[in-house]
Amino acid sequence: MTAVQDRAGTRAAARTRPRRVHPLIVVVVGAVIVVVLTYTLPPFRTYQLATVGAYLCVTAGLTVLTGLNGQLSLGHGALMATGAYTLALWQNRFNLLAVGILLAVLVTTAAGAVIGLAAARLRGPYLAGLTLAVAVVVPSITSTFDETFNSDQGLSVMLNPPPGSVTNEQWQAWLCWGGALLTVLVLALLTRGRFGRDMRAVRDDETAARLAGVSVARTQVWAFVVSAACAGLAGALFAVIAQSVSPGAFPLTLSLFLLMAIVIGGLGRLSGALIGAVLLVALPALAHEIGEAAGSQRLEGNLALTFFGVVLVVVMLAAPGGLASLRLPVKRRTPTR
Amino acid sequence: MDRFVFLTFDGLSRGAVYAAFALALVLIWRAARIVNFAQGAMAVATAYVGYSVADATGSYWLGFVVAIVAGLLLGAAVERVVMRFVDHSSPLNGVVVALGLVLIIQGVLGMIYGNEFRPAAAPFSRDAYELGGVALLSRYDLFVFGAVGAVVVLLTLLFTRTPTGLRMRAAAFAPDVSRLLGVPVGGMLTLGWALAAAVGSLAGLLVIPTELGLHPTAMDIVFISAFTAAVLGGLDSPIGAVLGGLVVGLLLSYISGYLGATVAPMAVLALLVVVLLSRPDGLFARSKARAA
Predict the structure, then answer these.
(1) What is the CA angle B81-B84-B85, rounded to 5?
(2) How distant is the Cα of A187 from the closest Cα of chain B, in angstroms?
(3) What is the ipTM of this complex?
(4) Cα-to-chain-centroid distance, residue B230
(5) Averaged confidence pLDDT in chain A
(6) Which keywords are on file for this protein (chain A) (predicted)?
């Protein structure tokens, strides 16, 4: 009886919900849009597009970790630094970009596994405190091992010029969006299946998940590892875009910005990660323009900081599920209650 | 040996500050089950206010008092305006809101005062007294011990000997029953936040002259150290916070003294990992703290 009702319920839900498109189609469409944009946008906009792609890698991974699995990480800025430094060290010795990016992802994945093993045993404020400590410790690592990491100055990244007649900005945009779309595809496929179900079960009720045979610790560690790999990729891509790495590029505020991006975009949705990544590029640019108009350099960076903070607080108070839990009026075809 | 003695006293002086800061974290945790991640930023904000007043009037002590009062007001305001409206169904929400406050405070401070380090004067000499050629304590260290000791004693008296303290404890542990008995639970919560923020301001005022100076992010590492101290002692235990603070202070002093100052933040991280993984309830917690 209940099964029949359930099935009827699911069918009703399926009817009201828009049909899910296969992620592969989304990714192909996305790739076409990016390529078209790189040929039409001016170089600076193309550069910004590339930055959005690099951010999307990490916000997508963080969305899966925090939104689907309920683990808050403030250490993803540090994980990005891990990827970026790995790439820089590799490039300056061997100058093979593809291998370098792969290596950056692998090293960051290993670092993520270590943090993830600890994280799986911690909850709420304890996990946040631990990952916060990871985020804050980056500059002290680079100055302690300054022969390798060159303290606050950081390292420059050796890169070959882009092939053929491709401009540098186009090349960056393709590279970053190649990484971003691949990340989104993998995460979308991963979270659709059993892994995604396990993560949501763990997030919603650990005891129930355990009773249902889900290994809570293993799910949490895997979620952390996967999102760490995404952060490592993002870090490597940032190193490529900036052609340098330094601790100043990965401050604690970067981790807080990432958190803001996924909260504002809507926890647990990959589309939310895209909104967040766009905002991470657009809002500082907007603040820059306002700062320039006001003729105050002091305003520039701090305006973005303040604005992000206000948005974070307001969204958490008004809609703890993120903006995605507030349906946009256009989309509201069926009454929600 | 001389060096060890000096580092021990230096560590206790640092530890006293961490203890005060950890105490502020514990106060809010006991009252509201929130770890106030914005506490460092709030302390920095009040320190800026204090030093501005001191600069304008030429009196360090007037600035000191103003900073503490600003702490009281800021704490009360944060609770009344923001924290009261946080949805507590998930412990993450409080953390995220506090981190949003960090961004706001750091951004506003940067806009008003700029993002460079500003020198912060200490009210007493930081040159250590010597005893038989061994550097022991400076007048500033004595001031730190005196100030933190006074706060610990005053808070203990408040909570154990006064009707207000009793109401605050009741409001924290059994809000519904307290409300039935006529305790203004919301008001007690605001008072708790105000007190905690004032204690945090004091810790900020004490630590900032010994670090690089005033900067919007000046307290980030201090916050981590104090958080480690509070977790070490158990977030529910004020005594634990004080002892945890002293332990963390000593450890950091030895490590920066023998291995170099840049290693200290890594040591805090290592200590935090060890404590969280081995004694997750802290050394002094009676109830199960880890459930949240």
Answers:
(1) 90
(2) 23
(3) 0.89
(4) 10
(5) 85
(6) Cell membrane, Membrane, Transmembrane, Transmembrane helix
Amino acid in position A208: A
In this predicted structure, the answer to whether residue A336 has a pLDDT above a threshold of 80 is no
Test B90 with A70 for CB contact under 8 angstroms: yes
Per-residue confidence (pLDDT) for residue A33, from 0 to 100:
93
- For chains A and B, CB pairs below 8 A equal 159
**Distance (Å, whole) CA B253 – CA A146:** 22
Instruction: For chain A, positions 32-71, list CB contacts with chain B under 8 A.
Output: 66, 70
> Is B220 touching A (CB cutoff 8 A)?
yes
pTM, two decimals, is 0.88
Q: Quick check: A124 contacting B, CB < 8 Å?
A: yes
The answer to whether A248 faces chain B, any CB pair under 8 Å, is no
| Residue A227: predicted pLDDT | 95
Domain boundaries, chain A: 22-250
User: Which single residue is written with the structure tokens 């005594």?
Assistant: B239
Handedness of CA A17, A19, A22, A23 (dihedral sign): negative
How large is the average pLDDT for residues A216-233?
Answer: 94
Spatial CA neighbour of A317 closest among B105, B90, B97? B97
Q: Which of A211, A271, A246 is nearest to A64 (CA)?
A: A271
Q: Note the pLDDT of residue A232.
A: 96
Which pLDDT band holds residue B285 (cuts at 50, 70, 90)?
Answer: low
Residue A22 class from Cβ within 10 Å (0-12 exposed, 13-18 middle, 19+ buried)?
Answer: exposed
For CA atoms A264, A267, A270, A273, the dihedral sign is: positive
Give residue B289's pLDDT. 45
The identity of residue A220, as a single letter, is Q
Return the domain boundaries, chain B.
Answer: 15-218
Q: Quick check: B111 and A304 CB within 8 A?
A: no
Find chain B residues with C-beta within 8 A of A72's C-beta: 92, 95-96
Distance CA A117, CA A218 (A): 9
Q: Which residues contact A106 (CB under 8 A, 6 or more apart)?
A: A232
Residue A49 has pLDDT above 90, yes or no: yes
Instruction: Name the percent of chain B lying above pLDDT 90.
Output: 58
Collect all residues of chain B within an 8 Å Cβ-Cβ radius of residue A118: 273, 276-277
Measured between alpha carbons, how far is B159 from A312 in angstroms, rounded to an integer?
35
What percent of chain B lies above the pLDDT cut of 70? 96
pLDDT for the residue numbered A321 = 60
Residues A144, B277: C-beta atoms closer than 8 Å: no
Distance from CA of A253 to the nearest CA of B (A): 7
Q: Is A10 exposed, middle or buried (0-12, 13-18, 19+ CB in 10 A)?
A: exposed
Q: What is the pLDDT of residue B212?
A: 79
Per-residue HEC secondary structure of A99-145 comes to HHHHHHHHHHHHHHHHHHHHHCCCCHHHHHHHHHHHHHCHHHHHHHC
User: Three-state SS for B212?
Assistant: coil
- Tell me: pLDDT of A27 over 60: yes
Going by pLDDT thresholds of 50, 70 and 90, the confidence category of residue A17 is low
